[in-house]
Amino acid sequence: MKWNWKSLGYFSPTERRALLLTLAFATVLFAAPKWALQGKTDPPLLAGDDQEWLKQHWEKLEIPSFQKPGKSQVHRMNPLKPVRFDPNQVTAAQLEAMGIVPYLARNWERYLQKGGKFRQAESVRKLYGMTDPVFEALTPFMTIGRQDSGNRVGQKWVSADSSPVSKSYYRKKTCDELEINTSDSVGWESLPGIGPVLASRILKFRQRLGGFVSVDQVRETYGLPDSTFQKIRPCLILATAPKKLAINLLGEEELKSHPYIGYKLAKTLTAYRQHHGPFRSVEDLFPIQAASREAWEKLGPYLDFSGTTPAPPPN
Questions:
Q1: Closest of 215, 188, 186, 216 to residue 202, by C-alpha
Q2: If one looks up domain 245-304 in CATH, what number appears?
Q3: CA dist., res. 232 & res. 216, Å (int)
């Protein structure tokens, strides 16, 4: 039998009727939903008055994001209600009542409990979690070290007797003379920019030295900013001499504790002394190349050259 490719396009009458019925049924299925919904509208989600209000205020609404808020978003949905307060006396509960977020309020209270103290309003900005907008909103209400009572009127504080007080959010420290070799931590903390941590470091450094030999030596304290030292420099005086080291009598253990000597230099000094005899002046140290001439001159005021080298232990 010969194959005729034209027979592929031939349908019998029965097949043609079945095909037409299938196409008609498919058309009805696709068009029915559209015809059924034609002329209908969704019911309103809000009443007429609510819809009108929403149209007027839509752009002003702040829709909370489900993303984790960034640093600038912390207080967007928590309006601040600050009142006059002392940042060194406030509690976490009081801060939260003013609209401060809980984690910042807890950080604030924890800082105070550990002995931290704000010497000026600007220091509050450094708290972990503090943002510029929150700091600017709180600053006019901070009073550090103020004893007067009154109310804030415009840009001035008005005390109980209605006399105006100049705009100042904290009391600046006075600068009384301080003797650097005898003053305790209370005296150091009375200086501007010096808190408990820096006062403790200054005292520990002074103890290791045996005392300061000059006012400028205070600037060598670890962690003391030069800007802070320049502020307190006019307050400092030196009236007592430091404790000296008997370089011809002390052994390695006693010498190495001095900040300007250390272990290696103490070992070098005792060995040199054993071979060359006692030191008579700071010039006798210059040939020792373990330190520079400037280093020996810096150490010189702490050395007592009296006495003789103890005899070496017998073999």
A1: 188
A2: 1.10.150.280
A3: 11
Distance CA 16, CA 314 (A): 129
Q: Which residues of 249-271 are buried (b: 16+ CB within 10 A; e: fewer)?
A: ebebeebbbbebbeeebbebbbe
Instruction: Please state which CATH class domain 178-237 belongs to.
Output: mainly alpha
- 185: which 2 tokens? 């931590």
Q: How far apart are CA 91 and CA 250, in angstroms?
A: 53
In 3D space, the residue among 311, 313, 267, 259 whose CA is nearest the CA of residue 290 turns out to be 267
User: Worst-scoring range by mean pLDDT, 43-57, 119-133, 269-283?
Assistant: 43-57
**What class does CATH assign to 82-149?**
mainly alpha
Residue 127 pLDDT level (bands cut at 50, 70, 90) = confident
Fold agreement (82-149, 178-237): yes
Q: What residue ranges do the domains of the chain occupy?
A: 82-149, 178-237, 245-304
